[in-house]
Write a structure and sequence with these properties.
Layout: E1 3-4, E2 7-9, E3 12-14, E4 18-23, E5 30-35, H1 41-57, H2 61-77, H3 79-86, H4 93-117, E6 124-131, E7 139-146, E8 151-154, H5 162-173, E9 178-181, H6 187-199, E10 208-210, E11 227-232, H7 234-241, H8 244-248, E12 253-257, E13 261-265, H9 274-288, E14 298-304, H10 308-320, H11 340-354, E15 358-361, E16 383-387, H12 395-398, E17 405-411, H13 414-422, E18 427-433, H14 437-448, E19 451-457, E20 476-477, E21 488-489, H15 493-497, E22 499-506, H16 508-515, E23 544-546, E24 550-551, H17 554-564, H18 569-572, H19 574-578, H20 589-600, E25 608-619, E26 628-644, E27 650-661, E28 667-678
Parallel strand pairs: 1-5, 8-9, 8-11, 9-10, 11-12, 13-14, 13-18, 14-17, 16-17, 18-19
Antiparallel strand pairs: 2-3, 4-5, 6-7, 7-22, 15-16, 20-21, 23-26, 24-26, 25-28, 26-27, 27-28
Helix pairs in contact: 2-4, 3-4, 4-5, 9-10, 13-14
Length: about 675
Amino acid sequence: MPQTLQSFIAGRWIGSEAATPLHSALTNAVIYHTHADRIDFDEAVTYARKRGVPALMQMNFQQRAARLKALALYLLSRKEELYAISHQTGATRADSWVDIEGGTGTLFAYASMGSRELPSSNVLHEGPAMALGKNGGFAGTHILVPRGGLAVHINAFNFPIWGLLEKFAPSFLAAMPCIGKPASATSYLTEALVRMMHESGLLPEGALQLVIGSTGDLLDRLGGADVVTFTGSADTAARLRTNRNLIANSVPFTAEADSLNCAILAPDVTPDDAEFDLFVKEVAREMTGKAGQKCTAIRRIIVPENMVDAVGTRLRERLAKVSVGDPSVEGVRMGALASRDQQRDVTERVELLARGNEVLFSARDGFKPVGEGVGEGAFFAPTLLLCRDGMRNEAVHDVEAFGPVSTIISYNGIEEALALAARGKGSLVSTLVTKDPATAAYAVPMAAASHGRVLVLDREAAVDSTGHGSPLPQLKHGGPGRAGGGEELGGIRAVRHFLQRAAVQGSPTMLAAVTGEYVRGAKVQEDAVHPFRKHFEDLAIGDSLLTHRRTVGEADIVNFGGVSGDYFYMHFDEVAAKDTQFGQRIAHGYFVLSAAAGLFVSPAPGPVLANYGLDNLRFVAPVAIGDTIRARLTCKRKVDRNRTDDKGVGQGVVAWDVQVTNQRDELVASYDILTLVMKRA
């Protein structure tokens, strides 16, 4: 008896009456049903706002990042359960790895980025603050804060796990509760994932809800503090973004849509080059991976006219070796499409693409899926077409067959290749295979205007390349035009998409209080205890030390040059130095840095454990022989990463603002120093 899937709404699982049957991609047998039970979307939205938002706001960025890491570890420990279910989607183990471990890997990545880059508060300062008046009493800056709304994430069928998690991770960090809506065809895998996430006990109440089936009037209930993200077809994206309520309330809508991505073989590459084989391998992998059901798959293979036959021959040879069928059968390298409906859709679109073009490889070339009971499965043969006039044939730039289908398009000259690439009207990704840096320098800026990501592939990059079709958490995923015009991932940028940016004006002291960071010009606190003698909990933003003075002599410059090996003429050649803008010998910038450390460091053992970096270093003015310098050290920012060392001692990160001035109180050097500081407990 096929199981009826359930939605997770307002903290409970809903769904007992069977509705739409969901079929195995491998055998077409009914394996699940969606549920017919009506979802109260008013309850779902209210629950997210009244329970989810407060629960998430009780945590700060750092704590939510730690929770993401714990969740990733939990899901990874149960990954084999997900692999077993993923098999029914027609995915091979390698396909499922991208979805399952790619999804948990994205959680790990955002947990790591959050712990490194976000504060232990719910206010993210986008500094530095800037003076807005002549007297230093009025300044301005920008902050990012949680919106106080919810995020609706609508996903496609091709990546039922990664699709949810890559959206969930940054919105969770931004304290936005989520309502996930997967495509029905593979929603059984998303449902299994959400059950695990709920069972982990790691998610605050209301942080995640799941909709199986239709979104009903959900979008009509959203407000200006909410966000909608969508992955799927360009047509569906266009329909959803015109929802009257979304428009009326200016609800942010981010779309990542399927697009006609391309790979360009540059004219400098010949069949004897390693790059030629890399190109063919990359295209074949993108055609057959996930049975071509990737929004990033290569749909257009743009090749020099004199290379068309060679590329076509090599691709046919590769495709002929691809065994298609049940992924549990040894040797099978490509599985099925997600459903028979998808199979029919791809068939219709291939017929459109074939008009006026040549079919180089298809089901007629010995296609026979292997495995027991696969005769009714949603399998589709790898299909390669050839278009010899891409400037006139509109179909190759308009029609996407969302399966293992791609078209070779010939070109004359790199300018025509780039023009053909742009005919896709906006794509998620393009690949340029070249061995010539000058070709890359010319082509990439032009390709970047119509593509969200550009991969330049040569034999050097191939050693570590993650490939054309692999969105990475650290890099932007999304593209202009047909690709939806949105952005996902891209590191902490994605978190910022779910936060509200506001400009703040006031005195430096007030800005420091609001941002949780010392702002230059703000009031400082000085006491008898050196800031380096205070434990993490005892330090306050604005705790400061103004050091004693040191006069720089010629011996300092000579000694520093001897120790460092830096005998640059500006420091040692009096005659040459007179002809410079400074008119005299000056001290090494790094001597000034070292001398400042000597002025403010407290040398005895104490809570400060290590200095692990400098940020924003600037040498503002020269320090000449005879100048007298001093430093002001101020606690600028504290980040509690909720970690302990191997002895169980807690630590936090403290950023110190350092200003080095001369005898005229002129700023000569400025930087932030980062330290690990021990906790008392």
